[in-house]
Write a structure and sequence with these properties.
CATH topology of the largest domain: Rossmann fold
Number of strands: 14
Strand content: 5-15%
CATH superfamily of the largest domain: P-loop containing nucleotide triphosphate hydrolases
Distance between the termini: 29 Å
CATH architecture of the largest domain: 3-Layer(aba) Sandwich
Strand order of the largest sheet: 2-1-3-4-5
Length: 450
């Protein structure tokens, strides 16, 4: 639900659009002139304005300019019965999200409003994250490998060059991408993450580039793709090597021309997007096996960053432990916790195949499950062993339920081991990727939340 102001001197337009938006559960206000609209905005907050170009007192484009100066976060849709390309281009350059011609269809209004509100939501989410930054968004560690990573981040952030991040599962590749965006000149623009491995091949192009109504079954309206939503910001293509061949070809074109068409559309969309990519696979092998385009790799790999395994920076483990202990003790209200020196040594020497993500999960479990203030070496050993051999509950009423729960837990653990990479998980399990997607849907597994 959003607060929307309609500014138009035609009562029938206000009535029609208001009814459509109220049916969508939005709160709708209206103003018949520019002065009344500006007066209303001085006293009230709104999320979106539908603004007529031709008003009896003030030109709509002038109102657009004034609103953007005082309330830059408000999304604005321009509307006109005498639209022209020049006005539409001018309004768009001044910050209007879209331009609608009168009389707009119900579907066109709903689609434009939904797309504008989605972009507004992403922008506000980015602002919220920036305001509430914690150490959790930082690469914790003072080892030489981490100092080298930070140095590259600083150099990369000062440019708009593409960055290609490599590293094993759980090393913190997304944290590196977010750090680059946060330190860049695009920091106040969207940061849009795409998990290429979690999206079925048949949907990846729609997710990246959007689609037009009727372009395929289920396309009930126009949808903006991630590249369009990330315009003037950063798009993070995680697990890029799992992207389909056709999507790779389209991404290559976007990198070359900064242009694309939505699926099923003819309109050429121009964007200004910084691309940061990441993968946990051997890129050279993926290229040799023709799973990843070499020309795309060369385009993406302008600034390479390799994130080291936790085993390569063991001196950082005590710092990470202390941070996670403090974080989870406060988060779960367990009181102050401390790990014994023997326990610290055990954690430092442990191989950590799941890297920082695995360490984080173990520390959180210890904070919750160990009742005392001191977490001992024995406590840690028990939970490390239980982590290696997941055991499902035995008090399940039927064989069918037991089988389903076992299969669900098996898939979840396999996804965790493979860093939520569905293709890699399917390969490890020896099943088709489409079959694994079906199982994920069947058991209502939220891959991104793992």
């Amino acid at each position: 639900m959003a607060k929307i102001l309609i500014v138009d001197d035609e009562k029938n337009i206000i009535t029609t659009i208001s009814a459509i938006l109220q049916d969508e559960d939005h709160i709708v206000y209206s103003a018949p002139s520019g002065e009344e609209a500006l007066s209303f905005l001085r006293k009230n907050d709104v999320d979106l304005i539908i603004l007529d170009v031709w008003l009896p007192d003030i030109d709509g484009v002038e109102i657009l300019e004034r609103v953007k100066k005082t309330n830059p976060d408000i999304a604005i849709l321009m509307i006109s019965g005498h639209g022209s390309i020049d006005i539409a281009v001018k309004a768009t350059k001044m910050g209007a999200f879209d331009f609608l011609e009168k009389p707009p269809s119900m579907e066109r209004i709903i689609t434009a409003v939904n797309n504008a509100l989605e972009q507004l939501r992403l922008k506000r989410e980015n602002v919220r994250l920036l305001k509430n930054l914690s150490q959790d968004d930082e690469m914790i560690g003072e080892s030489k490998p981490m100092q080298e990573v930070r140095a590259i981040i600083e150099r990369a952030a000062a440019t708009s060059a593409r960055v290609f991040i490599t590293g094993d599962n759980g090393t913190g590749k997304e944290l590196v991408a977010r750090a680059i965006h946060r330190k860049s000149l695009r920091a106040d623009k969207p940061f849009v993450k795409v998990n290429c491995a979690a999206i079925p091949d048949e949907l990846i192009e729609s997710e990246l580039f959007g689609h037009e109504k009727g372009s395929f079954t289920g396309a009930v309206g126009r949808k903006l793709g991630k590249f369009e939503v990330a315009n003037r910001g950063t798009i993070f293509l995680d697990e890029i090597c799992d992207m389909s061949a056709s999507a790779q070809a389209k991404v290559l074109r976007v990198l070359q021309e900064q242009q694309f068409e939505r699926v099923g559309g003819n309109e050429t969309i121009t964007v200004d997007v910084r691309v940061i990519s990441a993968t946990n696979v051997n890129v050279k092998r993926a290229i040799e096996e023709e799973r990843f385009r070499e020309d795309l790799y060369f385009r993406l790999n302008v600034i390479p960053i390799h994130v080291p395994d936790l085993s390569e920076r063991r001196e950082d483990i005590p710092l990470l432990i202390n941070y996670f202990i403090e974080k989870f003790s406060k988060e779960h209200g367990t009181g102050s916790k401390e790990i014994s020196p023997e326990g610290i040594q055990l954690l430092v020497e442990y191989p950590w195949p799941g890297n920082v993500r695995e360490l984080k999960n173990i520390i959180e479990r210890l904070c919750i499950m160990v009742p005392g203030q001191i977490i001992t070496e024995t406590d840690i050993q028990e939970h490390l062993e239980s982590d290696e051999s997941e055991v499902i509950q035995t008090d399940i009423s039927s064989f069918k339920k037991a089988k389903e729960q076992f299969e669900r837990e098996f898939i979840i653990n396999a996804l965790k081991r493979n860093g939520k990479n569905v293709s890699q998980t399917a390969q490890e399990m020896g099943i088709e990727r489409t079959n694994l997607y079906r199982k994920i849907k069947q058991y209502n597994i939220n891959v991104d939340a793992l």
